[in-house]
Amino acid sequence: MSRFHAPSQRLLIGSLGALVLVLFVASLLIGYAPLDVGGALSDLIHGRDTLGALVLLQLRLPRALLGAAVGFSLGLTGAAMQGLMRNPLADPGIVGVSGAAALGAVLAFYSGLANVFALALPLGGLAGAAIATALLLALARNGTGTSLLILAGVALNSLAGALTALALNLSPSPYATLEIVFWLMGSLADRSLDHVALALPFMALGWVLMLRIGHGLDALTLGEDTAASMGISLKGLRLSATGGAAAAVGASVAVAGAIGFVGLVVPHLLRPLVGHRPGRLLLASGFGGAALTLAADCAVRLAPIRPELKLGVVTALIGAPFFLALLWRLRREAE
Amino acid sequence: MSIPRRRIPSLVLAVAGLVAASTAAPAQAPVAKPQRIVSLNLCADELLVHLADRDAIASLTYLARDARGSTVAREAAGIPINHGLAEEIVPLKPDLVIAGVFTTRNTVSLLKKLGVPLLEIGIAHSPEEAAAQIRTVAERIGEPARGERLASDLLADFARLPPVPANRPTAVVVRPNGFTAGGGSMVDAVMTRAGLDNIAGRNPADRMGQLSVEQIVIARPDVLITDAEPGAPPSLAQEVLRHPALAAMPARKISVPGRLWACAGPELAQAAAILAAGAREAKP
């Protein structure tokens, strides 16, 4: 088994963590206006109220924090869903969980509910993601056939997309209809610390729920009966994964829109490095997702395209060909 | 000038600008006053309400009734409305249709084919162009005296503004979605007359570019002008205006509703007065 060639878990997590740290700092350094980051940081530490400190604290920091946290959520959720459904194509974007989360967030935001009660935004995203995840699990018990999973994703994505467009069209704001691009493709532009404070607690809750199920996912690779005989509560496992995915993806989408393919590409790239054990893949995928999202967000700011590209455009450019290649290989294996 | 699609919502307000009205109608002398005038453009709506007899207006756009964007919402309440669709316009048998050069193009081309008398108005870039446009429209609808009064009042209001100081405070306009008003625009002209130095005006690339919050903060303007409407329905576009980084900026903040300076009309002087008051209080 390739497990023997895989690097130790500690080394892998350490290097991925270091990569995330480097990209996080890069994200702080990259911006639209020249900024002496060192000076701004010292101003910030000494409590001096300068313009540089303002830009660093209120603009660059929330962007980098959200990039890392949203990426971590998507990577981790991809790994958890793939482990639970025992299917390498279960990505929150592809199966429609992100789309449903966007619908929930759109309803909370454009109805004005989020203005009255700020938590309505992440809660709306969470509710949408939870309904979609529960629906998928109900459809896809006992190990999921790839075609059923993809078809369910097509159905959920179309429905959520159509309802999102409908909600935006009915909104009284003249800007709403154009904002569908944000909800379908995602972006971290001009986000604030308020968004971080709103989403991070829900994401962290989701991370805890999903990171707890590593052992159960490992056991599940042996089949449900064997896993149950090892004392794994399948119901508890499903509940943890569903709740965790809903909280993490729901909160992510509520503040950053639906960023696709991170949860597909990252677990797939890292799987050989963790000896194909879904339990070990969880944390590694989280860090990998954070790294990919931060890198993509640096890329949209560095690319000479204004207004800046939506984040989901970059991740789809990387992820969609990857998805096709993956389908191609699955087809060959089936033959 | 190409107009990216995403700009269109702000154009819904700004659209009708008008300048040197390119008269598309055949050069027949307006013998009789038009009696069934239809407007396909918000700025034309406002001018008609100011200039035409109410009985002569057959239809205004639905935008005219929305107090958030229209300066004549109250007056427009009893007048029939249209949504810029040819099927609504033709049965009205208009003897004059006023349209903006950038809006409802399909309807306009159809009306041209049907030979409906048409006046197209462009975008005014200065109070003088606005006055010229007011006169053009007034002339065409057979109310030259009213047009002359409105135009000369507008110019007189601008002439009464305090003299522009040599050392003008810097300013930048932030609209929903982070759009700003660049050099050459009406907003830029009004700011200059009010004694402000539009930072975005120094960038010659664009008349209505988008700025990121970061660029706005780093530009260190003395005055930050937003058109945040307190009652605006929620949208991501409006969220930009409420970003904590903008609130924390040391600049003086002025709010000017977009409807005041989106069209050639008497409200331009009102916008200039608000800005001039803000400019006096801001230290350059």
UniProtKB/TrEMBL annotation, chain A:
Organism domain of life: Bacteria
Membrane topology, record value: Multi-pass membrane protein
Subcellular location: Cell membrane
GO cellular component: plasma membrane
TM ranges: 12-33, 64-81, 93-110, 116-140, 147-167, 245-269, 281-303, 309-328
UniProt key word Membrane: yes
SUPFAM superfamilies cross-referenced by the UniProt entry: ABC transporter involved in vitamin B12 uptake, BtuC
Record keywords: Cell membrane, Membrane, Transmembrane, Transmembrane helix, Transport
Main location per the UniProt record: membrane
Gene3D superfamilies according to UniProt: ABC transporter involved in vitamin B12 uptake, BtuC
Family: Belongs to the binding-protein-dependent transport system permease family. FecCD subfamily.
Descriptive protein name: ABC transporter permease
Source organism of the structure: Azorhizobium oxalatiphilum
From TrEMBL, chain B:
Pfam families membership: Peripla_BP_2
Entry keyword set: Signal
Domain annotation Fe/B12 periplasmic-binding: ranges: 36-284
Keyword hit for Signal: yes
Signal sequence, renumbered to the chain: 1-24
InterPro entries in alphabetical order: ABC_Transporter_SBP, ABC_transptr_periplasmic_BD, TAT_signal
Protein name, per record: Cobalamin ABC transporter substrate-binding protein
Protein source organism: Azorhizobium oxalatiphilum
